[in-house]
Amino acid sequence: MSSNVPLAERLRPHTLGEVVGQQHLLGEGMALRIAFESGQPHSCILWGPPGTGKTTIARLMADAFDAQFITISAVLGGVKDIREAVEQAQVAQGNLLGSAGAGGRRTIVFVDEVHRFNKSQQDAFLPHVESGLFTFIGATTENPSFEVNSALLSRATVYVLQPLSEADLKQIVAKAQAIHAVPAIENIAIERLAAYADGDARRLLNTLETLAVAAEREQRSEITDAWLLKVLGERMRRYDKGGEQFYDTISALHKSVRGSDPDAALYWLVRMLDGGADPRYMARRLIRMASEDIGLADPRALRLALDAAEVYERLGTPEGELALAECVVYLAVAPKSNAVYKAFNEARAFVKQDGTRPVPMHLRNAPTQLMKTLDYGRGYRYAHDEAGGFAAGERYLPDGMEAPDFYRPVERGLEIRIADKLRELKKLNNQQR
Fold first, then answer.
1. Are residues 47 and 119 in the same domain?
2. Domain of 93, in residue numbers
């Protein structure tokens, strides 16, 4: 193959035995291997991060079944491309206008980034998948549970591809060296390349190709670690700022804070910042964590989160990121309570299903004489005029509504004292009722 062909394409496997990684699917006795050996293709969705072999597996499946392979990019394609794929499949099957076609050859339609097709576009595949006109293979980096129509999902088997391991990536480097596509590489440089690729074979090969071109230009016979760092500079690590990896990582940060592990919380914070996440978004999430997971167990946490957001606005990157780190550590070590969060959700659920209860007369405002005549506000007890600033026995809920007990303080942090206070007030109420 010509050296003008990209390295990633030159090293693309032509048989299952050449595939690096995904042995949980392609190894002996594994699900996809059995599918290949069955002699009967089936519609499927290949879900995994970039550079893990989704397109390669789809092509190998077409080769294994001697099928016509039609590729549609959901980024650039549309209904017109789907219609053309249907026509090509009909020709191959020998059904279009009585054409002999290709003697009933199978067709595989591969849709790259299928999650980018909208519902109507995905629906366009359904009758043809159902009729068996073609085998549908979709590739996606996003969770198909959320991004693929349930009707299409029910007609396809989902296979989950994993990021390539460090050993897998090193094996790919060795393959590139075997075809003399790259010069010798120091072992420590290979280690760094594998970490930099972050499980993405395409990223690894594109980087190797860049290094090989630079080495040839400088007439270098070896890629050293020092030179590698010089060439790569401070490139950002792969980070899908809108995809599932993003939300998985913010979930890990939130759960580390909730689990009171400051080291883990710092790790995930830095991972996100290092990967290009917007620090302002991070600040907003920290404010949410302070409200949801700490609440009144330590009210200072919310103020600290707001302060951290303000500090970042004033200082920017990188100085302002230290305030976010300080906030993350504080939130992680603070006492935890989701009592307010739960109380709010319970109150919202109650109001949603309950009727619109009238405001009791004694709680209504009476700014006009007519309202006073109608007894608005009559009998209201002004708490500040009562002993201890508390109108014992007074009711503030709608008439006939039982006390719902939404807010239940936990025995942690400040909420220990809040619980004591509420018990004392409840005792006073009971004495007056």
1. yes
2. 22-160
> 132: helix, coil or strand?
coil
**In this structure, are 115 and 179 located in the same domain?**
no
Beta-carbon contacts of residue 401 (< 8 Å; ≥ 6 apart): 357
N-terminal to C-terminal alpha carbon distance within the chain: 91
* Reported confidence tier of residue 276, pLDDT bands at 50, 70, 90: confident
Tokens found for residue 380: 């209201």
Three-state SS at 261: coil
CATH code assigned at 369: 1.10.3710
Residues 6+ apart with CB under 8 A from 292: 338, 341
Give the C-alpha separation, 254 to 242, whole Å: 17
**Higher-confidence residue: 79 or 95?**
79
Position 33, amino acid: R
The CATH code of the domain that includes 313 is 1.20.272.10
Angle at 43 between CA 38 and CA 47, to 5 degrees: 110
Structural domain includes residue 33? yes
Q: Residue 182 carries which DSSP code? A: S
Does this model's pTM top 0.90? no
* Residue 135 pLDDT grade (very low, low, confident, very high; cuts 50, 70, 90): very high
Name the domain count of the chain: 4
Instruction: At 92, list the tokens.
Output: 């191959």
Residue 219, number of CB atoms within 10 A of its CB? 6
Q: What amino acid is encoded at 104 in this protein?
A: G
Q: Please check whether residue 328 is in contact with residue 309, taking contact to mean a CB–CB distance below 8 angstroms.
A: no
pLDDT value for 235 = 56
